[in-house]
Amino acid sequence: MITQLIKNGEVVDTSAESNSSSSTSKKSGGSLDKDAFLQLLVAQMKYQDPLEPTDNTEYISQLATFSQLEETQNMQASLQEMEANSLVGKQVVLRVTSSATGETSDVTGTVDSVIHENNKTYLMVNNNLYSIDDLYSVMDDSYMDAISLAKSFSLAIASLPSADELTLDNAGTLTNLRKAYDSMTSYQKSFIKQSDIDKLVKLEEKMKQLQAAAGENGDKTEGNGGTEDKKDTEETGKAE
């Protein structure tokens, strides 16, 4: 059941016919359906020359051609229906031309359901109906996974401070990001921005410097503590 959206007291046309009216009008002018074929055949019989009527064999041949055309169209409709049903749950890109402005835009989303109505097939994407004629491409699951990983990785890199503001508290985050990147496949790594990789490497180098400096300070503190303990021991011995 297709419902209408009411906005500001007016009915908003969100039907598939509205979203794909441009592409539909282009296709309707270049194809000959079975009804048009039958009308042409009837007109030929009606206006034939009575002195030279068309041979019955030719009519039979044309009727056979008509039957083949009908079977072909039915087969195409069945194949289109099967194709549409197989799209449920997949990520698709729809190229839609607005009937109001004539502008073409791409709509990306998951096919939630398929609706067959009036010998037409519609895809439910982002809670809107689109004609299957607007289908531009179907995206592979591995492609979508790679895109999602790249976005998450980029956001994590962007949340890190600059090298000048980096502290030892960021060590755990850097380690996790390095592990995440190294666990990716070559295909997934190809979607990672080079700028994100460069920032990760730069921060890792800075972290090594911070950790090295922290280690040296720790050694100095321990060294000073040992000297003071030695002095205390010597003073205690003298007092005795």
From TrEMBL:
* Ranges of Low complexity composition bias in the record: 14-30
What's the superkingdom here?
Answer: Bacteria
Does Transit peptide count among this protein's keywords? no
Q: What segment(s) does the record annotate as region Disordered?
A: 1-30, 210-240
Which UniProt keyword terms apply here?
Answer: Bacterial flagellum biogenesis, Cell projection, Cilium, Flagellum
| Residue spans of biased composition, Basic and acidic residues class | 217-240
Task of the protein: Required for flagellar hook formation. May act as a scaffolding protein.
Q: Which family does it belong to?
A: Belongs to the FlgD family.
Specify the protein name: Basal-body rod modification protein FlgD
